[in-house]
Amino acid sequence: MSNIEHQAQAQNKTAGQKAPASAGAPAKPPLSPSVIAIAGGIVAAGAIAGILLLGGGEKVGTPERPALSLIKKSDIDKAADTLAPEEKDKIVSEAKACQAPLANMRISKTTADAGGVVRIRAGNYLSPAFNVADGPINVAVPFPGPYEAGKGEVVIEGAAKDVFVEFTPGLKIDTTAGVRRVPVFWDTSKPCGG
User: Fold this and answer.
1) pTM of the entire structure?
2) Which residues of 117-143 are buried (b: 16+ CB within 10 A; e: fewer)?
3) Total Cβ atoms within 10 A of residue 103
4) Which end is more exposed in the chain, N or C (fewer Cβ atoms within 10 Å of the end residue's Cβ)?
5) CA distances for 85 relative to 98, 129, 161, 174, angstroms
6) How far apart are CA 130 and CA 140, in angstroms?
7) Helix, strand, coil share (%) of the chain residues, nearest 5
8) Secondary structure element (H or E) that encloses residue 176, with its range
9) Biggest alpha carbon distance in the chain?
10) pLDDT tens digits for range 128-163
């Protein structure tokens, strides 16, 4: 046997001989309180982020992210008059069957000189053009994303100045310089407008 083989054999024998563990000593050292606190904080932050990303944590609209209101099932026929004619029958049928409920918005002008023409894009849906002139206009639109998601984006297009769009809370919109994108959320607990 060579010297190298003798050394390897000796190391293997030494590695196999370990001192017996004392019966009273714990197998692993306990976690420190700071490690437990950090791990708990990470878990809590992840849970909060998950709720907010799914839209389920929001209950009150803000100017940065207003809430959409659900049209009650009993009001669908009345609200349907503002839907795009080519899509109206399909949208109304899905809303009445609780497959895809409708959202409600009110558009009005803020001053005597305000007004103009606007269209509302919600997901793949594009509303007819609305001339915001004298009185407020109640507008029905499909929710801009899957209802279960609880969040999406509404886009106000057209040529209008100082128009008020009533979400919760409402927003003053000016589309003379282009479009206005509004991130929105909604309460998913009543899919049939109960």
Assistant:
1) 0.65
2) ebbbbbbeeebeebebeeeeebbbbbb
3) 24
4) N
5) 20, 12, 26, 26
6) 12
7) 30, 30, 40
8) none
9) 105
10) 999 998 789 999 999 999 999 999 999 999 888 888
